[in-house]
Write a structure and sequence with these properties.
The structure holds two protein chains of two kinds. Chain A is α+β, with helices and mostly antiparallel strands. Helices cover 48% and strands 12% of the residues of chain A. Chain A has helices at residues 5-17, 27-38, 43-53, 57-66, 86-90, 93-104, 146-160, and strands spanning 78-83, 110-111, 117-122, 134-136, 139-141. Chain B has four domains: 4-78, Ubiquitin-like (UB roll) (Roll), CATH 3.10.20; 111-271, Alpha-Beta Plaits, CATH 3.30.70; 280-348 and 481-620, 3-Layer(aba) Sandwich (Rossmann fold); 362-474, Dimethylsulfoxide Reductase, domain 2. Helices cover 27% and strands 18% of the residues of chain B. The two termini of chain B are 52 Å apart. Classes of the chains: A alpha+beta, B alpha/beta. The A-B interface holds A 56-59, 61-62, 65-66, 68 and B 166-173, 180-182. The structure holds iron/sulfur cluster (3 copies) and FE2/S2 (inorganic) cluster (2 copies). The site of one FE2/S2 (inorganic) cluster has 12 residues of chain A, from helix 5. Residues 225, 227-228, 230-232, 255, 259-260, 262-263, 388-389 of chain B line the site of one iron/sulfur cluster.
């Protein structure tokens, strides 16, 4: 498998960053970046990461199955992760998730038919002081209300057109 | 010497070496700390929390399995807090556990059962519906029942570290975590069953043993595996005269608890429906069943008559029969028949090595040396396929002592994965390794059948030139190849010559199948064959005498490293006799007096009389049978397990060997 040149360069650097014999440490970052580039973790990607890091495909599969941020199904261009852990739950995180689900017409870890959005319920994302919080891809949104969520979705939809 | 550390466990003063884990220190003091994930010899996991103990001045409970001892440590393993922690951990472990002990293979020898019995609460606060997944079959020998699994990772680690295979992993997270095989829905691996054996519960079960018996209904018979030359001790579980399992959980024997697929599962040839259970005699061109009395009388009469008229005997001995049998057969041929044409298939140049060492017995390595010597040099053998225990020992040496492994083979081998140097080639390729080897404190050299005759002398000269202590192993194939070479004294025709000779009057084969790939030169010879099955050779016989297998015999065998070990009879197969008894009965019938044919008496006699150097075999006649993990000469054909696993017939140097089990 060959990745875009910038990604290849990044992977080269990454593998050299770890001491000789510890290349398996690159499994998670490699999966994350590659997933961003190709939209999901495919079986070929698992094989490729295993090969590059010198581990078995099963060992990569263990990692993919363990971390929820790695997914084997395509997610939307905007992956909305809503926190429902304690602080966020106390301040309306669950309602927020329900609202997002209704507005987008999709459930947890599902994507809209046009591939624009996907939704995921997540545990604490470290933004408790500004609960309830959500992440759109890598961008944090704080003290989110259903209205603010609608606005966010509206603006993202507009941008896409 | 490492420094000793003083600590106190449950009021007992304990003194142990620095760096020792608390759980081991407690064991030394006779205090049991319950454990699931901790397993001596494997990497630490700290996954199960069964071993929590209280250490004074520590803020919370600590895992004894990962905490090294420290000077002045005061540990409590019997406090109420620890008792509660154990109860809670067990309650968690049982939350989704099916508790199907009444039908579980492990029932009666299950570590979870024992722990709950000793430390559990006896009731659970969980009222939720238990999470269930169906049992899966991953290979003819490995089944996985997820709900019983306590996720201790023992199987994952033993496969990766112990076997160097790495076929198992844990997928998913939390309550839905489960063990997964390397090929998604099935396993492609060594099929050794180590994962099943090491599983503390009944999550991994064996295709051979499952649902056949309760553990306490078996008799346990410790004997030696009859397949390859490595000489693993195997404990046969015998029920109603039949073997239902083989393992070595008590770690007795040179192999600890290691067994490969052959030692663990390929005992099934014993009960094979084609097993010969009655003597056969050629009558009107066809082999017909006859009584033992008739068969023995016929053989004795023929032998006596040929001896009388000074006729010629050609005898092929076995690589599987016991030392006592081999010795007795030699004596029979020499003293009883006045013959000298006796030999066997030689699979490695043992005699050549012993000759080259000229009396230096301390230069012969043992299986133990492979675990303790700093450097190992492997020449011309795919150990993981051809010598599974030796390969396992060397891996353990690497993991535990960081051994330096050097490989010189014609193709890729498993040892390449962790060797310091791997060179492709034969003996000529060792020269460049000399400098590195000279810097080692000690070395064991293992060599396969490509090193024979003069090459063995060259190799020993090379070893001498290194200036370090060097020990050797001449690799041979079968369970008693080494023993057969050791008792071989005759100076008559050699193996190939016996087969090719055209003037034999009697051709007598004991436990071998030479006619599989060789024509018999003496078309008119009277052919007597002692065998378990109707092999190519047996089919050619005038009289076939059904022999017992090693699992039905007592006596001794000598493994590849020259370690002499005792066989103990487990099952009984009606209609067969041990080769020793057959010899004894024939000679009695002939009116000879070759001595009592009881294994212990023969061994005594061997001790007193066996002396001197071995006759060196012609190098051309030495060749390995190239058996893999999944083949075992003619015997392998009659093991259904070996024929059922998809990995068979296996690879040597990464290349498929021809044919199914030969
Ligand atoms: S049978 Fe042996 S090689 Fe196969 S998965 Fe189990 S431990 Fe690994
Ligand atoms: S299958 Fe057995 S050995 Fe493997 S993790 Fe589960 S309980 Fe432990
Ligand atoms: S390594 Fe050899 S002796 Fe040991 S179990 Fe396997 S076949 Fe038997
Ligand atoms: S609980 Fe939601 S960010 Fe911490
Ligand atoms: S034995 Fe210590 S955590 Fe499992």
């Amino acid at each position: 498998m060959i990745f875009p040149p910038e990604l290849e360069a990044r992977f080269d650097k990454m593998l050299k960053a770890y001491p000789e014999g510890r290349q398996r440490s690159a499994v998670i970052p490699m999966l994350m970046y590659a997933q961003d580039a190709i939209g999901m973790v495919t079986p070929e990607l698992v094989q490729e990461v295993a090969r590059r890091c010198g581990v078995t495909a099963l060992q990569v599969d263990e990692v993919v199955g363990y971390y929820t941020m790695l997914h084997r199904k395509p997610f939307g261009r905007h992956h909305i992760q809503v926190c429902t852990n304690i602080s966020c739950m106390l301040r309306g995180g669950e309602e927020l998730l329900a609202h997002a689900s209704k507005r987008l017409g999709i459930g947890n870890r599902e994507a809209t038919a046009d591939g624009q959005f996907s939704l995921e319920e997540v545990e604490c994302i470290g933004a408790c002081s500004w609960a309830p919080a959500l992440i759109d891809n890598y961008e944090f949104h704080h003290s989110v209300t259903p209205e603010k969520l609608d606005q966010l979705i509206d603006s993202l939809q507009k941008k896409a057109q | 010497m490492t420094d000793l550390v003083n600590l106190n466990i449950d009021g007992k003063a304990v003194k142990v070496p620095q760096g020792m884990l608390l759980i081991e220190a407690a064991k030394r003091a006779g205090i049991e700390i319950p454990q699931f994930c901790y397993y001596e010899g494997l990497t630490l996991q700290a996954a199960c929390r069964m071993c929590l103990v209280e250490i004074e001045k520590a803020p919370k409970l600590t895992e004894a399995c990962t905490t090294p001892v420290a000077e002045g440590m005061v540990v409590h393993t019997d406090s109420p807090t620890v008792a509660t922690a154990r109860k809670t951990m067990l309650e968690f472990l049982l939350a989704n556990h099916p508790l199907d002990c009444p039908v579980c293979d492990k029932g009666g020898e299950c570590e979870l059962q024992d722990m709950v019995f000793r430390y559990g609460v006896g009731e659970s606060r969980f009222t939720e519906v238990k999470y269930h997944v169906d049992e899966k079959q991953w290979s003819p020998v490995v089944f996985y029942d997820g709900p019983r699994c306590i996720l201790c990772y023992r199987c994952v680690r033993v496969c990766d570290e112990g076997l160097g295979v790495g076929a198992l992993g844990i997928i998913n997270r939390g309550v839905v975590s489960e063990i997964a095989p390397n090929m998604g829905d099935h396993l492609e691996c060594d099929e050794c069953g180590a994962c099943i054996d090491i599983c503390p519960v009944g999550a991994l079960t064996s295709g051979a043993y499952r649902y056949k018996t309760r553990p306490w209904e078996m008799e346990h018979v410790g004997t030696i595996c009859t397949h390859c030359s490595n000489g693993c001790k195997t404990t046969l579980g015998v029920r109603d005269g039949a073997i239902v399992r083989a393992n070595n959980r008590d770690r007795s024997g040179i192999n600890g608890e290691f067994l490969c697929v052959k030692g663990r599962y390929a005992f099934d040839f014993v009960e094979h429906e084609e097993r010969l259970r009655s003597p056969l005699m050629r009558k009107g061109g066809e082999l017909e069943e006859v009584s033992w009395a008739e068969a023995l009388a016929t053989v004795a009469k023929k032998f006596a008559e040929v001896k009388e008229r000074g006729g010629k005997f050609g005898v092929i001995g076995s690589n599987h029969t016991t030392n006592e049998e081999n010795y007795y057969l030699h004596k029979f041929v020499r003293d009883g028949l006045g013959g000298e044409n006796i030999d066997h298939h030689r699979t490695g140049d043992v005699a050549g090595l012993i000759d080259a060492l000229a009396g230096r017995a301390d230069a012969l390595a043992t299986v133990g040396d492979l675990y303790t010597t700093k450097a190992i040099l492997v020449i011309g053998s795919d150990l993981a396929q051809q010598h599974p225990l030796l390969s396992y020992q060397i891996r353990a040496n690497k993991r535990h002592h960081d051994a330096h492994v050097y490989v010189v083979t014609p193709g890729p081998v498993r040892e390449d994965n962790y060797s310091v140097r791997s060179v492709r080639g034969g003996l000529e390729a060792i020269g460049p390794l000399a400098d590195a080897l000279k810097a080692e404190p000690g070395l064991v050299v293992l060599f396969g059948d490509s090193v024979k005759g003069d090459a063995v002398r060259q190799l020993v000269a090379f070893g001498d030139s290194l200036g370090i202590p060097v020990k050797y192993v001449a690799l041979v194939d079968y369970s008693n190849s080494r023993g057969a070479a050791d008792v071989s004294q005759a100076a008559g025709l050699a193996y190939e010559q016996i087969l090719s000779a055209s003037d034999l009057d009697v051709f007598w084969v004991v436990g071998a199948n030479p006619l599989k790939d060789h024509a018999l030169g003496s078309q008119n010879a009277f052919v007597v064959v002692q065998e378990m099955f109707l092999t190519e050779t047996a089919k050619r016989a005038d009289v076939v005498l059904p022999a017992s297998s090693a699992y039905e015999k007592t006596g001794t065998v000598t493994n590849v490293t020259g370690e002499v070990q005792r066989l103990k009879a487990g099952p009984k197969v009606m209609g067969t006799k041990s080769d020793l008894e057959i010899f004894g009965l024939i000679q009695k019938e002939m009116g000879l007096n070759l001595g009592i044919w009881k294994p212990d008496n023969v061994l005594d006699e061997m001790r007193k009389t066996t002396r001197g150097r071995l006759p060196v075999a012609a190098p051309e006649s030495i060749r390995s049978a190239r058996d893999t993990l999944f083949t075992s000469g003619s015997l392998g054909r009659y093991s259904k397990v070996l024929n059922a696993v998809m990995e068979g017939p296996g690879l040597i140097y990464g290349l498929p060997v021809s044919g199914k089990s030969q």
